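Quick one:
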Amino acid sequence: MLACSKRTVVALMLAVAASAPAAAQELLLGYQVQRFGSEGDNMTAPLGISVSVAGPRSRAARLVGQFDWSRKRESETLFGTSFDATADFTAFAGGLRVGGATRTGAQPFLDLLFGAIRSSGSACVAGQSVGSGAETDPMFEVGGGIAVPVGRGGFGVFGQLAYRRVFAEGTGINGARFAAGIRLAN
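Output:
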C-alpha cells in the first residue's frame, strides 16, 4: 500500500511539473539523509529521495510542494539467528519558497513548509515477522539551500539543509534533513 502511494505522489508531482508553464516552475530532485532525535535517542536514515516542485514566482516568493522518503534498515545475526528491522519515513508538505539570484547566477532559497510525515516500521526474527506499525503526524519544516546553474538551459545542482519538527503524540521529534541533487528550471 505504501509503495503504491509513493509512486502515485511522484507521478502526480511530475505531472504537475510537466503541465505547468515551463517558464514558471522549478523541479529539485535529489538524494537525502535525515537524522531524528527525541529525548536523547537519535537515529539516522541514510537512504532517501527528495522531490520538490515550485510554482510561478510572485516577486521573490513562490508556492512549493515537497515529497520525500527515507529508510533505515538494520540486519544482524546473533547465535545463528537473524534479526532484521526497517523504518520508513514519508513526508508530504507544502508552503513557500523565498529566494533570488546573485550576480554569479547562484540562487539561494529559504523554504517554510507544513505537512505530515508517515513513519512505519517492521521487525523480523529468523525470517518471521514479529511486529509492525505506522503512524502519521503533522510536521513543520524550515530550511535553506542554494541552486547553482550548470551550463545552459535551466539545468543546475542544489544543496539544502532543513530543520524538521514532528508533532508526535506524547513528545515531539526534532529532525535534520540534508538533500543534494539536480535542479531543472526555466
